[in-house]
Write a structure and sequence with these properties.
With 156 residues, the protein is mainly β. The protein has 2 helices and 9 strands; from the N terminus they run E-E-E-E-E-H-E-E-E-E-H. 14% of the residues lie in helices and 41% in strands. A hairpin with a 3-residue loop joins strand 3 and strand 4.
């Protein structure tokens, strides 16, 4: 597997597969996630980006056809649990949107305890434009907007 370094820890991985949907990349342990996928475009123009923010690092994955790069940045994040709990209280509104445009999803994974004391992740939607389904999902909570804006400034 070829590797190269450009100041930051950047590892380039070339995959033999011609189609790697970024939405299939597991992000269950990431506390905040931003996903981007082009709409219906020619194969040579299709690309995806996934930015996964963990408590101690950020992992950015770019995919264009068979080319895949993964960049890991060391960064500690705090204060997200309280913000996610506030965002979870937002009442989602789903409206019709354009079809055949890029899909962008912003969400978080909130650790919650069930009645038996077991911890699990609950997905909290912050914002989504789904060009495949033609829908737009908006979370009006102040914390959802705050976290979306954080992801926009922290991720490419």
């Amino acid at each position: 597997m070829p590797k190269f370094h450009l100041g930051l820890k950047v590892t380039a991985l070339w995959s033999l597969s011609l189609s790697l949907p970024a939405m299939a990349i597991a992000a269950s342990d990431a506390v905040l996630v931003k996903e981007f996928q082009t709409g219906f475009v020619m194969a040579e123009s299709a690309r995806t980006l996934t930015c996964e923010v963990y408590a101690d690092k950020t992992v950015i994955t770019h995919v264009a056809g068979p080319i895949r790069t993964v960049e890991t940045r060391n960064a500690k994040i705090s204060g997200y649990q309280k913000a996610l709990a506030g965002a979870r209280k937002g009442k989602l509104s789903v409206t019709a949107g354009a079809v055949d445009i890029p899909t962008v999803k912003y969400y978080g994974n909130l650790r919650v305890e069930d009645s038996d004391g077991n911890l699990s992740n609950r997905r909290v939607t912050l914002f989504e434009v789904n060009g495949f389904e033609g829908t737009q999902t908006f979370n009006p909570a102040f914390e959802a907007k705050l976290l979306k804006n954080f992801l926009d400034s922290h991720c490419p």
